[in-house]
Amino acid sequence: MKVTHKKFNGGYRFKKFEGQPLTKVVDFLPSSKVETATEDITNNDDIMEFLKSFNLTIKKGINEALTDEDVHIQKESIGKIIISMTQVEPYDFPIDIFFEKDYANDFIQGIKILKDKLPNVQIHLVLCGDKLKKHETVISEIMNIDGVQVSTVVNKYPINKKELLIPTLLDMKYPIGYPSANIGVIMMEPYRIIQLYRYYKEKKPTTHYMVALAGLAWKDNLVLNLPLGTPIKEITNEYLNENIQVRLISNSLMTGLTLSMEDKIDKDTSLLIALPEGVKGGHGIDTGLHGTVRACISCGQCQNVCPVGLIPHLLHKHVEQGLVNESLANLRIFDCIECNLCNYGCPSKIDLVGSIKKGKEQLEEMEISHKDYQLKDIKEV
User: Fold this and answer.
1) Residues of the chain with CATH 3.40.50
2) Does residue 293 have a pLDDT over 60?
């Protein structure tokens, strides 16, 4: 089967900052008792039990107003599965691990099991083009699996976001405001494929996860194989540089959540980023707390970097001035995928995405929702 290259016009190419996670995996055993050690999965032959274990829900009525009622996607409704292996953020989980000898076989066998259990589903493995030649042997073996398509994209952020990856890869319109399961598409991380293999072949429940340590605040940028429920403070006690104030962020420097030492590792955490707080200079990246928020200078930088062609500073001004009505929706506020590129590039340090989120919420309270304002296209920048 031929590798297809999918064109992504737009986005932002980040340089790779110091503190990238290495491909070295070490076992980490916390000294304290871990309360939540396993996922709630029963060992049977139903693939849906595994898929339901990580909350693949579907919202009822894609052409109706948003509802709080969620249900799990049904097996017959799954049309395509995307295994996303793109690396486009300043820090990413090191996917090279899944092509190396310790994990490559489990990864390949997991894909085969997925295809065997869901024979009518098309599986798409997508990665950045620079990885193709590097891992040619393993990728060739994957390509020989019937019903599996390997595709490449340019390594520009935010192609890893489902709202852009699905239209680019599958030529399908993404239902803004709804899970991808609503259009029969499931996105899976590569480590989930290895878990699937062990779930079926070794009859082992998921008790451990791999979490990569990124950022200059760590002593070593390792990948830890650790029990679910491991307290973050146990990791920081062992691996964090001493006498340094840091901010901990989960999964994504651009869109991840800030964590506290009291939080625990759960099944949704694969990357733990530790940034020096407010430190100037150096060759890494810090939290950027230098100076205060200033007035918008209408420089257009936020518009230049927006991957879906919005004018973030205009949306921000509408919300801040209380002009939240149908005209704001007509400015395509719902097309915003909240990638935070506008915040990243704003010289005035304005929380543009915060204003956009606020505007969306207020419009939905007025019963002006996503359903009438679907993603239009992807703008080249």
Assistant:
1) 4-17+34-202
2) yes
